[in-house]
Specification:
The N terminus is likely disordered. The chain is α/β, with parallel strands linked by helices. It is globular. The relative contact order is 0.11. It has a nine-stranded mixed beta sheet with strand order 1-2-3-5-4-6-7-10-11, with helices on both faces. A four-stranded antiparallel beta sheet has the order 13-12-14-15. The protein has a two-stranded antiparallel sheet with strand order 8-9. Helix 3 links the parallel strand 6 and strand 7. Helix content is 28%, strand content 26%.
Length: 359
């Protein structure tokens, strides 16, 4: 049975950045049922209350991948908000990872999808988490924001349609549902209709960010969807970015931070929601392991920019492998060694764990 208070499952402090990280099990009442939702919280480690930012993940195309998800997969994004003065909680909605309650966001058959209902189901999880977090002593009372990507962004748009107390703004990176393969969305007209439904009652400032080469929800669909949302009455600021990587749907990622963070900063400042004047400085970067070639050094930089739990391994010559966002450090080590030795060229060794060199 779920207890009445959150239990701190583990605690880790990143003193170099003055950002505190905690793993929590959040008790939530959603759709009349009590469930435990897996989460991590990153916040300035200054003993002061700060406003809340709820960070919301996407949904993989392969249903089997839902069970393997971890809230650490969004830790780097949450850290960027914590550096800016937010209490950032990244959690897994019902049916993802170890969160209880069964998957609630199904939209049914592709021939007749209920996207509006699926988005509202995800929104109810966000609202329940925000309600719990508002009771924590390190969260300041009043305004909070919801930030999401893909299905989490869609749930964030849905959240604005039935504004919970204190929701001041919403940020959605490539919101949508129903992408079954690159550049294919089943029942596209139903997805557009869901955005129009949300827009009819949404009055919260919404930032919608989309890359030109998004392979889930492309530029044409974005134009139609944002148009339907705004014509219905929703207040949306659309920002289109140049192509990002091989698929712009991955913009809200570690590598995308230099692109998306200034966009977010401008939007929050415009709406009077910048908690602090200057961001907490990032820790000094560790030196890359010797023998890495240019590709390996680039990979190590990406590794350093990523959040825990993570590990970097090297092998003979310039071979390397790394893993990040795992539920445990042991799992990160195992996966890093596996990636490094995938070509069968011999054993590999862990040389860095969570930005700490292993001698």
């Amino acid at each position: 049975m779920l207890g009445l208070v959150a239990i701190a499952m583990s605690t880790e402090a990143s003193r170099a950045e003055d950002i505190r990280l905690e793993a929590l099990t959040i008790p939530a009442v959603v759709a009349g049922s009590s469930v435990a939702l897996e989460a991590i919280v990153l916040r300035p480690d200054d003993s002061q209350p700060h406003p809340l930012a709820v960070i919301n993940h996407g949904s993989p195309r392969n249903a089997a991948d839902r069970a393997t998800m971890s809230p650490y997969g969004m830790s780097a994004q949450a850290r960027e908000f914590a550096r800016r003065g937010w209490v950032a909680v990244a959690f897994l909605r019902r049916g993802y990872g170890r969160s209880e309650g069964g998957w609630a966001e199904t939209y049914g058959p592709c021939a007749n999808p209920d996207y509006a209902g699926a988005g509202l189901a995800g929104a109810s999880d966000i609202a329940a988490v925000a309600k719990f977090m508002a009771s924590q002593p390190y969260v300041s009372r009043g305004k909070w924001i919801s930030v999401g990507v893909s299905a989490g962004a869609f749930a964030t748009v849905a959240l604005t349609a039935n504004q919970p107390p204190g929701l001041a703004a919403a940020i959605s990176f490539a919101p949508g549902r129903g992408s079954t393969s690159p550049d294919t969305v089943c029942g596209e007209d139903r997805l557009v209709a869901a955005f129009a439904q949300y827009g009819a009652t949404s009055r919260v400032p919404l930032l919608w960010v989309s890359a030109e080469n998004d392979r889930f929800f492309g530029p044409r669909l974005v134009t139609v969807a944002t148009g339907a949302f705004s014509r219905a009455g929703g207040a949306v600021t659309l920002v289109r970015t140049p192509p990002f990587g091989d698929d712009g749907h991955q913009l809200f990622s570690v590598k995308g931070i230099p692109v998306w963070s200034p966009i977010v900063d401008r939007f929050l400042a415009t709406n009077g929601l910048a908690p602090r004047g200057a961001s907490i400085e990032a820790a000094a970067a560790a030196a890359p392991p010797p023998r890495l070639d240019a590709r390996g050094r680039d990979a190590f930089k990406s590794y350093l920019d990523s959040g825990p739990n993570k590990a970097f391994a090297v092998g003979a010559g310039t071979r390397f492998g790394w893993a990040t966002g795992r539920r445990t450090i042991d799992q990160a080590k195992k996966d890093a060694l596996g990636f490094c030795a995938a070509d069968g060229s011999g054993a590999c060794t862990i040389v860095n764990v969570n930005d700490n060199a292993i001698r």
